[in-house]
Design brief:
five-stranded parallel sheet; 7 strands; two-stranded antiparallel ribbon; alpha/beta; about 230 residues
């Protein structure tokens, strides 16, 4: 059967794709990994390695293990950047690429906001307080039902030994993001555009109208060059 790989955003987990996977399971084998440092995956001893090259190399290993002829790739935010790099490589197996709210140009202020958010060592006495926090930081995700907000929170919060609810990822994820400067961001952007221009597969871009990460200008540029994203 066809294989679909779904990769989540920077502080999220593979469970984000539960509803999508359930609806596509007749047509696809759906693989939704927790990227290293998140959810069920282990942490890295050196937090400096929480960067796209490490994630790409982990996914190359996963693809080798799955050994499919072709795969379709659905990447949200960080998961989209991982797919973008993979799709730019020679002889890669990606047949169709969906980039969800991400592109080669990332808003530097948006990145800084995310870095600050990731590093907060928040602890909640009750799950309800945790849900409220996730609602506030995920406000730009748009309207959700109460049950959907609760699931968004349950997937990324866990109880520690003291019974407090904490975030289900290694806080070290923030280290490389916070170390990003305007200069290093510009170099990274150049490399991402070069990778984007090398993509040959069908590419679909999804952009939230209120996104502070992916600008309208970048989305338009992505339609003009590289794989000419739809």
């Amino acid at each position: 059967s066809k294989v679909l790989i779904c990769v989540h955003g920077i502080t999220r987990v593979g469970d984000d794709f539960d509803a999508l996977a359930a609806s596509l399971q007749d047509e696809y084998r759906v693989i939704c990994p927790d990227v290293v440092g998140r959810g069920q995956s282990e942490s890295l001893p050196n937090p400096q390695l929480y960067q796209i090259p490490q994630y790409v190399s982990d996914m190359v290993t996963l693809l080798a293990r799955l050994n499919p002829q072709t795969v379709d790739w659905f990447g949200t935010s960080m998961g989209g950047l991982i797919g973008l790099i993979l799709a730019s490589m020679k002889n890669n197996p990606i047949r169709k690429l969906i980039l969800n709210d991400v592109g080669p140009s990332l808003n530097f202020d948006g990145l800084k906001r995310i870095g600050d958010l990731i590093s907060q060592d928040v602890r909640f006495d009750t799950f309800a307080q945790g849900v409220q926090f996730i609602r506030e930081v995920s406000n730009s995700f748009g309207p959700h039902t109460e049950a959907q907000w609760e699931k968004l929170a349950r997937d990324v919060l866990k109880q520690n030994a003291d019974g407090k609810w904490i975030r289900h990822y290694d806080l070290g994820l923030a280290v490389p993001v916070q170390a990003t400067t305007a200069e290093t961001a510009a170099i990274g952007e150049k490399m991402l555009w070069a990778a984007y221009d090398a993509i040959r597969c069908d590419t679909l871009l999804v952009r939230g109208s209120e996104s502070d990460l992916l600008s309208t200008a970048t989305a338009q540029e992505m339609q003009r060059r590289g794989p000419h994203a739809k």
